[in-house]
């Protein structure tokens, strides 16, 4: 009698356990199918090492609307302290993907906010059966700034320590191509002048400046006006401008900055 009861209870327990396991399996299966996995690697061809604090930004975006910004569906931040490739994986609810929409992967490698690499080709995020995509990023090549119509900030004075301007403002100048005029700030006062160019030769005209007295900035003013007054030639390498004297010696260096 007892043996029969035990057998029946055991059978009930096994049946309940099996049904529970089956139910859990179905739920897990449903959970897995409710999401879409997009994974891959970001890499570049150049044999160069990145700064230890460089970062890789990877974006999964809806790019369906040509006249509107892409909608970011998911994003990932990866340290670029090691050599590529840089692996990424997105697990996104399928409900976020809309029928007839286009989804792309975009990657950027940055260092302290400066863009170093990015991909310039459309990469379909969902076209691969296994969800694995390779994202090739290319080095960003910046156009060399023009001498004219660019703001040039003084960053180096030959043989001297660069002085501070009023309220620590930098000295700068700009050449207006349209009317061959010069405008700028010398560390204490604003100034204007004219200039002439012949090849890489440059000559500044007479300077007119405001006459404000500054508690700080007069030393930088003297440095800036001496450089411009003695400049005879110029050289541009990358974002940097060098002004040279009559002997061909660099007397000041400037970098291109946003106004």
TrEMBL record:
Gene3D superfamilies: 2.40.128.270. Keywords: Signal. InterPro entries: DUF306_Meta_HslJ, HslJ-like_sf, Lipoprotein_YbaY-like, Pilotin. Residues 146-254 form the DUF306 domain. It holds the Pfam family META. PROSITE patterns: PROKAR_LIPOPROTEIN. Residues 1-28 form the signal peptide. Transmembrane segments: none annotated. This is DUF306 domain-containing protein.
